C-alpha cells in the first residue's frame, strides 16, 4: 500500500457523474472516496477528538505529528487571546520588528543545536524548506561559486508541498501531473540508506554543482524510517568533505519528539540549517522557520556599504500571535518536562510494538525512534483498511508509504493509553487478517 493507494479506494461503483459536496476541497484526497464519509472534528480535549457524528477518537498521530502538548490547551488559547488584544501582529520587514518575534527567536537560538544560530521565521514546514533551499543557493551565489545550485534529497523523503518541497520529494507521486518532472529543475535524489551510493551520486553530479543536501533525521511520511546506523553521521561527513551544506528537516522531530529537543542532538549532528514547524507551536498557530549557522548569516551582517540582502520575508513571517503561542508552548514543554516524558514514552511504545510484532504474523517489522513508531504490515493486509477499522474502535493511526501505520501520540498520554492504543491496532489487524 502507498499513500496514493489509500486515496483511491472508492466505495460504490463509479457512475462517471460529477459529484457535488461541501465547498471544502480536502487535502491529499481522491474526492469521491471521501465524500459522505468525512470525519468532521468539532472539538478536542487533550489527546481526544470529538466528531460531529458523536465519536470520541484517540489522536494517536497527534494530528499530522504536531499536537505534542495535546489539544485545546487553555494556556495556549490564553496566550493567543492576550497577544491579539495587545498586538495581533506587525511585519518584520526592514526596520520593523515585534517583541514577540524577537523573544521567540532568542529562545530558539538558545536551544538550537547549531551554535550562534540566527532564526528565520515564516508560517510552516513547506515554507521553511523553500526558505532553507533558497538560502543555500543564495549562499553559494554570494560566494561566487555560482554553479552550486542542486539540492540533493533522499528517496522516500517528504519536505512539504511548496515548489521546493514538491521538487525534492522522494515520494514520486507528489511530483506527478504537473507537466514537468520538477518545479525546481536543480534537484536530485540520493539513496535513503546507503552512503556509498550517496557518495557515488555526489561524484557523478559533481560537488561543484551541489548546494545542499536535505534530510529528515527520521523519515516521517515516507514510512517512519529511522536512519540506518551511521547514516546521518556519514551524510554530515560527506557534506563537509565536499563543501555541501547540510539541511536537517526537523519539522516532525523538532521540539521533543525524539526525547531530545532536536533529533540533531540524539544523533550528534551539527547541520548548517535546521527547518522546523509543527511542534514549535504544537500546531496552535501556523509557524515554522529555519535555524541557520554563522557561515550562512555572517556575510549578511557585515558592517559595509555593499553588504548583500537575503530577499526573504512574508506578511506573516514573525507573526506576533503565532510567536506568542510558540513561546507559551515552549514554556509548557519545559515546565511539564514533556521532552523527558517523550523519552520515557519511547520505551513504552517500543515494548508494546515489539510485543505486537512477536504475536502477529501480519506485522513484518516495527520501527521506533523517539515517541514515534511505524508498524510495517504484510502485503496481504492493507494499512488503510486497518486504519479505518482502528477508527471504528476509537483510535486514529495513519497509513503511510510501505504499508506502514504511523503511531505518534501527544506527549501527554499515559503509559496505559499507549498500551490501549497498540491493543486497538492489534485488534484491527486481527480482524483484517481474518477477513
Ligand atoms: N517537512 C517534513 C519532514 C514534514 O513532515 C512536513 C509536513 N508533514 C513538512 C516538511 C511540511 O510542513 P507543512 O505541512 O507545515 O508545510
Record the SSE blueprint:
Layout: H1 3-6, H2 31-34, E1 41-45, E2 48-51, E3 56-58, H3 62-65, H4 74-86, H5 99-111, E4 118-122, H6 125-142, E5 150-154, H7 163-168, E6 187-190, H8 195-205, E7 210-215, H9 231-241, E8 245-249, H10 263-267, E9 273-276, E10 288-292, H11 294-297, H12 320-335, H13 338-359, E11 363-368, E12 373-377, H14 383-392, E13 398-400, E14 404-407, H15 415-433
Parallel strand pairs: 5-6, 5-7, 7-8, 8-9
Antiparallel strand pairs: 1-2, 2-3, 4-10, 9-10, 11-12, 12-14, 13-14
Bound molecules: 4'-deoxy-4'-aminopyridoxal-5'-phosphate.
The site of 4'-deoxy-4'-aminopyridoxal-5'-phosphate has 16 residues, from helix 6.
Keywords: Aminotransferase, Pyridoxal phosphate, Transferase
Family: Belongs to the class-III pyridoxal-phosphate-dependent aminotransferase family.
Organism: Agrococcus carbonis
Low-confidence stretches: 1-10
Helix content, binned percent? 25-40%
Radius of gyration: 22 Å
| CATH superfamily membership of the largest domain | Type I PLP-dependent aspartate aminotransferase-like (Major domain)
Family: Belongs to the class-III pyridoxal-phosphate-dependent aminotransferase family.
Protein name: Adenosylmethionine-8-amino-7-oxononanoate aminotransferase
Organism: Agrococcus carbonis
InterPro entries: Aminotrans_3, Aminotrans_3_PPA_site, PyrdxlP-dep_Trfase, PyrdxlP-dep_Trfase_major, PyrdxlP-dep_Trfase_small
Amino acid at each position: 500500500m502507498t499513500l496514493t493507494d489509500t486515496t483511491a479506494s472508492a466505495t460504490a461503483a463509479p457512475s462517471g457523474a460529477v459529484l457535488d459536496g461541501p465547498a471544502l476541497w480536502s487535502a491529499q484526497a481522491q474526492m469521491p472516496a471521501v465524500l459522505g464519509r468525512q470525519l468532521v472534528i468539532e472539538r478536542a480535549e487533550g489527546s481526544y477528538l470529538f466528531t460531529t457524528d458523536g465519536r470520541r477518537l484517540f489522536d494517536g498521530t497527534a494530528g499530522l505529528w504536531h499536537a505534542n502538548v495535546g489539544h485545546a490547551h487553555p494556556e495556549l488559547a490564553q496566550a493567543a487571546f492576550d497577544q491579539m488584544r495587545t498586538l495581533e501582529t506587525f511585519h518584520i520587514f526592514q526596520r520593523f520588528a515585534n517583541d514577540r518575534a524577537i523573544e521567540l527567536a532568542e529562545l530558539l537560538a538558545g536551544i538550537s543545536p547549531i551554535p550562534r544560530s540566527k532564526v528565520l521565521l515564516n508560517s510552516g514546514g513547506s515554507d521553511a524548506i523553500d526558505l532553507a533551499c533558497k538560502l543555500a543557493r543564495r549562499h553559494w551565489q554570494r560566494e561566487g561559486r555560482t554553479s552550486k545550485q542542486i539540492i540533493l534529497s533522499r528517496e522516500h523523503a517528504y519536505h512539504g508541498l511548496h515548489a521546493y518541497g514538491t521538487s525534492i520529494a522522494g515520494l514520486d507521486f507528489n511530483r506527478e501531473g504537473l507537466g514537468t518532472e520538477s518545479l525546481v529543475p536543480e534537484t536530485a535524489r540520493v539513496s535513503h540508506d546507503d552512503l556509498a551510493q550517496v557518495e557515488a551520486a555526489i561524484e557523478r553530479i559533481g560537488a561543484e554543482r551541489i548546494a545542499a543536501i536535505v534530510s529528515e533525521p527520521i523519515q516521517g511520511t515516507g514510512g517512519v524510517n529511522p536512519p540506518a546506523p551511521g547514516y546521518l553521521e556519514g551524510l554530515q561527513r560527506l557534506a563537509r568533505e565536499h563543501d555541501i551544506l547540510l539541511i536537517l528537516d526537523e519539522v516532525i522531530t523538532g521540539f521533543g519528539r525524539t526525547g531530545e529537543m532536536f533529533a540533531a542532538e540524539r544523533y550528534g549532528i551539527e547541520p548548517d540549517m535546521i527547518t522546523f514547524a509543527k511542534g514549535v507551536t504544537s500546531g496552535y498557530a501556523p509557524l515554522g522557520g529555519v535555524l541557520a549557522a554563522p557561515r550562512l548569516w555572517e556575510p549578511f551582517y557585515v558592517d559595509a556599504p555593499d553588504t548583500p540582502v537575503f530577499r526573504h520575508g512574508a506578511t506573516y513571517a514573525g507573526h506576533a500571535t503565532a510567536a506568542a503561542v510558540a513561546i507559551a508552548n515552549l514554556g509548557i514543554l519545559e515546565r511539564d518536562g514533556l521532552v523527558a516524558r517523550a523519552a520515557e514514552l519511547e520505551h513504552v511504545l517500543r515494548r508494546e510494538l515489539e510485543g505486537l510484532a512477536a504475536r502477529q504474523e501480519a506485522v513484518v517489522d516495527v520501527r521506533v525512534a523517539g515517541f514515534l513508531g511505524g508498524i510495517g504490515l504484510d502485503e496481504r493486509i492493507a494499512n488503510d483498511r486497518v486504519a479505518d477499522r482502528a477508527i471504528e474502535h476509537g483510535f486514529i493511526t495513519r497509513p503511510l508509504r510501505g504499508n506502514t501505520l504511523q503511531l505518534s501520540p501527544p506527549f501527554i498520554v499515559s503509559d496505559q493509553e499507549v498500551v490501549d492504543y497498540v491493543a486497538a491496532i492489534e485488534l484491527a489487524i486481527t480482524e483484517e487478517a481474518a477477513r
